[in-house]
Amino acid sequence: MRIALFISCLLLAACGFKPLYEAGGSSGAMQAELEAVSVGPIPDRLGQIMRNQLLERLNVAGVEKYRLDIVLEQTSEGYGVRPDAATTEELITLKAYVQLVSLKDDSILFEDTLRARTSFDIVLSDYATVTQREDSARRLALELAERIHRRLALYFSQK
């Protein structure tokens, strides 16, 4: 068991693996860059949820050098049709179009499109269905916010 662990450590070191949040090296510089990112307003309730999550992770106390612009697009589609033509499940897709803009010259430094999906069962209670839809969309917004944070950290660690 120890030999396998030793060999795997050697293989990781040989391939150039470097942890994103390492204890000593780039994490201080990367964190300083992440703290310099301001998050622009994102429309609608899902945008507020995503923006609040990103504000907790970004621009804690930094001087703003970058602006993060995000446009959300939510789609839903029913599937799983019963014999009476009613759908039994709904698939929600949330897309985030992300741009990191330099405040110095308004140039786009980073651009990406992220997508997350989830589905839920449609039940007989309208209230339960609406609650499930809203909760699913909220979880997708939080998931995309975490993925955006990781993408920015990766961008700044490679910069």
UniProtKB/TrEMBL annotation:
Q: Keywords, A to Z?
A: Lipoprotein
Short name of one Pfam family: LptE
Q: Which InterPro entries match?
A: LPS_assembly_LptE
Q: What is this protein called?
A: LPS assembly lipoprotein LptE
What phylogenetic lineage does the species belong to?
A: Bacteria, Pseudomonadati, Pseudomonadota, Alphaproteobacteria, Kordiimonadales
